[in-house]
User: Fold these one by one.
Assistant:
Number 1:
Amino acid sequence: MKALRQRMASLQPFIVRAHRVRLRLGAKVDPIRQQLSARWRALSPREHRQTGLMLAVLTGALLWLLLIKPALNTLDHWQQELPRLRSQQAALQTLLGQATATDSAAPTTLLQRINASLDLAGLRGDSRVTPAGAEMVVTFAQPVDAARLITWLLNTSTTPGMTVQQVRIDRAGAGENAPETATRVSASVTLAAQ
């Protein structure tokens, strides 16, 4: 409650200034408003209808210029761009189809893909790949460099056709204080085909 009172006390000068500004504006606007009100009352019913019609036309024109016309221009632009984008998509699909057809050396089984990814990461000699049903378990019996392993895991998780199911990482030499073993880990990774 005390904090609220302090906050209100700090806002008091702003409230006073806003009130003064409102009074000054009111003093300037009130005569104009009274003059317009007197002129409106002096108009005949026919002039009231004409003025209302004019305001409706003016409002419609402003709505057209500010809201409707820009939206229609955007639609026209994309109607013209859509055929060009579709032709580019067709060309890209053709290129991707050719690339897939010519890539016959790409590994096809999960085991081949895992071995290829381990080769690229330089971890093939340190690992053993064992099938476990529909999944493959990659075991690193000897401690491997943690940075290489993490890089391989990140690349494997973005490889199409493979998903990382489970990862178990143990720091090598946890009981020792040797700095050379601080970045080496033993790991077991379970991978599955998508």
Number 2:
Amino acid sequence: METNRNSQLSATDSNGRFLMPPQPAPTVENDEETFDLGRLGSVVRRRIGLVSGVALGTIAAGTGLLFFMDETTPAQYAGKFQILVEPVTAEDKLAKLSTQAQGGETQGGPQQIDVEQSSLDYETQILVLQSRKLMDPVVKEIQKKYPHITYEFLIGSGKLSVSRVSAMVNRTRQETKMIEVWYQDSDPEQ
């Protein structure tokens, strides 16, 4: 064996340099090649209690919060109706156009009439509908059953809303020819 070892050390190449015996190549561990499912399974088994505990705790806390909010928030009931305040068709505009053509009205010509343009001032109409003069008979009728409701209560509380209805047409919001009256209260009878 001694001779074999010396023969390896004394081996030279043609230039007279000593040759080293072949060394095994260093091994580089690749994460993809050394992935061990058994090790992953043991990590999951050790931490399954923690993961499931956190998940169950989060679900329980969220559910408890929802029940608490549901119990502490009073239910709200709402009722509404809509009123068409202008004709849907343009007959009234065409009647004005006909009257102008016959000479009944002298201001403006047929080219100045826009059939789609509204002649009603909706903001003023809404203020008139909410006025005390129109609301007093309604309030008196309501007070027969609910004596605590007054005009100030309806208008000032925000429970009664009168507004113009708008709709989405071709991805743009357009105002309609309707007004909506809406009332909200925690009492379902009201």
Number 3:
Amino acid sequence: MRIIAAAAVILGAACAHAAPVYGDANGDGAVDYRDAVVLLQAAAGFTPVDDTMRRNGDVAPVNDYNGGSFGDGRITILDALRVARRAGGLSTAAWPAKSTGMLLENGNSYTVRKYDATGAATTGPGTGLPDESNVITGPISETVGGVTYNNVYEVTASDGAVQHLLQVTDATDTPASVQATQLVLGGNVTSFSPPLIVAKYPLQNGTTWSGTTTATSPAAPSPVTVSYNASVSGPVSVTIADGVHIFDNAYKVTLNYSSFPLLSGKDYYWYVPFLGPVQHGYTLTTLLTTTKTINPDVKLVSANVHGVLYP
């Protein structure tokens, strides 16, 4: 079972972390001039960027889309200036605007480049095949295992494959997790009951989760029970497929899954705030094949997230 695509890596459980206190870069519970100073020092390279800064301090730019999303995955002088304006009562924009947790909003899109086990690109310039584009639409209602979910988004690839991801929010409407009700695995449409949780928010170093689900696929004669556990590490630096754009605050999610005795494996994806997953790889072992490792097999080429085209 191979978990495919930059927006559909699997599994997890509901988020247990409190929502970020946006602007509180030093983690003291307040948003004031001291946070602006911390961000300014980090942006200038005088102090290292830690997890608290990344989680709370990436508040700029504000993007004029659907109420205003914010952030670009980096700590820059723009973040320091926005916090300073907020602390001084000069900011007129909604605070903190709308958090960009994932690519899951109607109209968002992204393009990925695929790679083989040798690290050579199999799509894109010089390959004779175009990079894979993906368009997100929704939300729709979908019934899985007798339960109806009302906030499911369809991710349609240029080859016609359609995957379904469920956006889950907490009581404050903050993204808590992303779940998969349907993925395309090895060319087969596979559904999950209960839905697989793709990510827990916010992604933080040391976060872990585990669970069990039932997978139903035309490739299997009967439903298969899948057990899994996942962990988050980082931040790490990743370079996307254009070879130029580098993210220094990507968090790596490692997913271990098993459907004894037929299958076991690991999936890896690197997630960047604002853009979502930017890189993916896997290790797969089955009774019928030897262990196969490709890391990465997918990299982000570009994305149109909340009306902002990147890169």
